[in-house]
Amino acid sequence: MPQRQFEDTRRKRLLMAAGLQWRKIAITRKSFTGAPLMPIDLNNLSRAELQKLSKDVDKALASLADREKKAALKAAELAAAEHGYSLSELTSGAAPKAKKTGSKSPAKYRNPSDASMTWTGKGRRPAWIREAQENGVDISKFEI
């Protein structure tokens, strides 16, 4: 099934589940008033005209996203109702847990030859600690 047809079928199911009417709209070069549009030559537009056009497109996309979210929410509510649940019952406690925002562990060891190289004592040992241990140096000499 071609990608476009798949997307249309998916949208149709979502809209029908939300109780909305499905209409496949043929894409034509007509404005909302029905008057034919002339092709736009973007190369001949000024910076201000292009920026206005960009803002208008952004507004239209945001509006479309809002409408699609509302339709998807309605479809989800209907699907939950078909199984005897409300959407809030199914989503309560299902929110992703926030990441821990704790601070990093303080450094416990510092390289004497380069003070910017530190190690917390956790995780993989840095090369300068491994080299020192291979040469028989006690790790406590690097403690801060």
Reading side by side through the largest sheet, how are the strands ordered? Answer: 1-2
Would you count the extended β strands for me? Answer: 2
Number of domains: 2
Stretches where pLDDT is under 50 for at least 5 consecutive residues are 25-31
Descriptive terms for the model:
single chain; 144 residues; 3% strand; elongated
Describe this structure in words.
The protein has helices spanning 3-17, 47-82, 87-91, 127-134, and strands spanning 109-110, 118-119. It has 2 domains: 3-26 and 46-91, no CATH class; 109-142. The protein is elongated. The relative contact order is 0.08. The chain has 144 residues and is mainly alpha-helical. It has 4 helices and 2 strands. Strand 1 and strand 2 (118-119) form a beta hairpin. The chain is 44% helix and 3% strand. Strands 1-2 form a two-stranded antiparallel ribbon.
Give the topology:
Elements: H1 3-17, H2 47-82, H3 87-91, E1 109-110, E2 118-119, H4 127-134
Antiparallel strand pairs: 1-2
Helix pairs in contact: 1-2
In short:
The chain is built from 4 helices and 2 strands, in the order H-H-H-E-E-H.
